[in-house]
Structure formats: structure tokens, C-alpha cells
Write a structure and sequence with these properties.
It contains 6 helices and 9 strands, in the order E-H-E-H-H-H-E-E-H-E-H-E-E-E-E. By secondary structure, it is an alpha/beta fold. A hairpin with a 5-residue loop joins strand 8 and strand 9. Helix 1 runs parallel beside helix 4 and helix 3 crosses helix 4.
Length: about 170
């Protein structure tokens, strides 16, 4: 997200270090949840698999995002053709409660809309917010349409050489 709180995949400045961080992070999880819009944006990485970049960190991230299982929540998609993806056959709350009961590693949430819904349902254990040193002035705010004031406990931060900061929080 940007300094002014907007989610914009074109505004960030992901570099080799950021790609390496998220490649490693994806290897620590069991699956990632997407809404339709973000899922379709992430399909970009399939093209990197087919036509590798000159940047190794992008290719490594493409492999990692391809490998991790994805569950897509959509009212409009009828099917998905990414081998590691499936459409949820259950509502978000029901599916997440079921997944949280199972043993395993982390479940990532990769879509702004799902983050908002799961925040309202109190179903997110930890937030990792990567803030890029950019102001865009408009766009989709990350925390829009929340039902209540929420206080967080700061856990730690990681600063990238680009100036991006990854802040870790949990609900207080």
C-alpha cells in the first residue's frame, strides 16, 4: 500500500529484495485466499513462468506464487484454469473457519476485499502491511467499510533498502 493508505498494484516499487522476501514468505504458507480481481491480476505471474524475466527474483517469485495453492472467492467466475487454484464452494467465513481448524502452516489473504471482510469477522490473526514510500492521492483505501474501531498491537517491522516498510500487527 502507499503512504496515504491506498492499495494500488501499479504504485508500489517492488524490487529484488521485496520479491525475495515474498518468495520466502510464500514458501512458509499452506495457501493463499484471493478475490476475483486480485486473482486475475496475479495471473500475470503465469506469463513470467512462460516467458522468464531477466530478473531472477521475479522468476523465483513466479515459481513460488504458481506453487502455493490458491482459493478464489468469486460470484462471477465459473472456473479457474490455474492448476494451483480452485474456486471456493463455500462462503468466505465458513471456509476460513474450517481452514483455521485444520493443522498446518499459515493461510495468507491476498485481496483487499477479503482483508476487509475478514477484519470485520475478526478472523485475521496477523497483519503484514507493506507500505511503499509513495503518495498517490487516490485509489482504493485498504481499510474501507470496517464495522468498528480496531486497535492493533505492533509486533515488529522490516525495512527494505528501497524505503518500503513491512509492519507486522495483531489485534490487541
Amino acid at each position: 500500500m502507499t503512504l496515504d493508505g491506498f492499495c494500488d498494484h501499479t504504485a508500489g516499487l517492488p524490487d529484488e529484495e521485496v520479491h525475495q522476501h515474498y518468495t520466502k514468505l510464500l514458501g512458509q504458507g499452506d495457501l493463499i485466499l484471493y478475490g476475483r480481481t486480485t486473482y486475475q491480476l496475479m495471473e500475470f505471474w503465469r506469463t513470467v513462468l512462460e516467458h522468464p524475466s531477466d530478473e531472477k527474483s521475479m522468476n523465483d517469485f513466479a515459481i513460488a506464487i504458481d506453487k502455493i495453492p490458491k482459493i478464489v472467492f468469486s460470484h462471477t467466475l465459473k472456473d479457474v484454469d490455474w492448476d494451483s487454484a480452485s474456486l471456493s464452494d463455500q462462503p468466505l467465513e465458513e471456509m476460513v473457519l474450517k481452514l483455521k481448524q485444520q493443522p498446518g502452516r499459515d493461510i495468507f489473504v491476498g485481496s483487499r476485499s477479503l482483508i476487509v471482510q475478514l477484519t470485520n469477522l475478526h478472523l485475521i490473526d496477523e497483519y503484514q502491511l507493506c507500505v511503499y514510500p509513495v503518495i498517490v492521492g487516490k485509489g482504493l483505501p485498504l481499510f474501507e467499510n470496517l464495522n468498528e474501531r480496531t486497535i492493533f498491537k505492533f509486533l515488529k517491522t522490516k525495512t527494505f533498502t528501497s524505503g518500503a516498510m513491512l509492519n507486522y500487527y495483531q489485534r490487541a
